[in-house]
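Hi L.,

You mentioned the student needs an example of a multi-chain input paired with its predicted structure. This one should do, with 438 residues in total across all chains.
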Amino acid sequence: MNLLNRYLQEVSKYLPKARREDIVAELRANILSQIEDREQELGRALTDTELVEMLQHHGNPLMVAGRYGPHNLGLAFGIQLIGPELFPYYRTVLGVIWGISLTVMAVAMPIIARTVGEKVALGRVLLPLAVQFAVTTVIFVLLDRGKGHLLNRWDPGKLPALKTDSEDGPNARRIFNFIATAVGALWLALAPRSPYLLLGPAAISLEAVPMKLMPEWMQFYWAIVALLCFQLGLQFLNLLRLLPRRGAQVADLILKCAGLVIGILLLFKFPNYVTSPYPDVAEWANLSFLICVIVAVAIGLFAVVRLLLRERRAVLPGPRVAHGKS
Amino acid sequence: MNESAFENLKLELRRGCLVLAVLAQLRVEHYGYTLRKALADDGLEIEESTLYPLLRRLETQGLLTSEWREEDKRNKRFYRLSKDGKLVLKQLLEEWQTMGASLGRILWEQKV
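Structure written out for the whole complex:
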């Protein structure tokens, strides 16, 4: 049954999280019944090759999961361009691309409008969105054309191995997280003294165009460094497995919430980050900082929501089972 | 080209019929696998990756009800027609019969 578990693990990767457990339980019950039926027919257990054939016939995990999408929709202009198997992925990819673009454009639009006028600015904003729509759609239409060929050419024997410790994550990941956080903390602590770390070879331009961080920004800066140090400590304890899993999850959630609060304060309470005798330079540098802070807040918000949803799922009951009858 | 047009039209024709067949079959309770077998026994083959998500959608639309229950030492999700589902099935069958009769007349007239 190892192969079946690997197959279901692969299907579950692409399923909507809220219904993942329920759908996988139902698929497992149905496939096991099918296996039992076939074994009864043959009067012996299925061979590995027969099981591979059965799963192959059941369908590519990506396609099977795609059909459980929230809506069985597709994209059609007279003929179907993107079928229901790929449409949920198309919608997600386009949503992410447009989401990022709109966030960046919302910030950049007032500045562009000031220099070239509102009508031209609107055109410059809408054109990239239209191009992104066209390119994404063409890619997915081509994928849809070849999907029968591509999706049928999968090999159940090559499915990834079962994750035995998926909640804790493998040790390699803990080590990587620890090293990455340590390097990040060190980089952030040294960056104000060595602008080269921040700007690379362009740091030399600071001599010609002086630019400094606003003094008020430093309190946020040290708060971020402190937060990274806490995170480093947490990851060190995690690396040595000194923290219970639940405790590590809660501590991680608290640290991410604290990071999000700092990001939101930076965004709304303190819009000027850089000062320079050249107003244009200061304006563009502040805009660059603002975009970085927006991206950081968006990532932080995503991480916190993801952790909260995971907490919520952890306390929700599994599929209800009634006993008796049949 | 004709082959692909035929395949598309066949798909469209089959899609509506499958819903009708699934609703009709679920006047008696089934779980996914036995429902698929029952449909196949009556000559209507349907792929697992089509049938199981279809059951979920019909349940979301309120036409089916489902219940997890243990049978043969295994938990299975059993589906049956809901009250609304019975009404919709009755209406769909009437529609089906009307269309069938019309189609029959059209084909008969052409033959004559």
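You could point out the following to them. DSSP finds 13 helices and five strands in chain A. Residues 316-326 of chain A have pLDDT under 50 and may be disordered.

Best wishes,
N.
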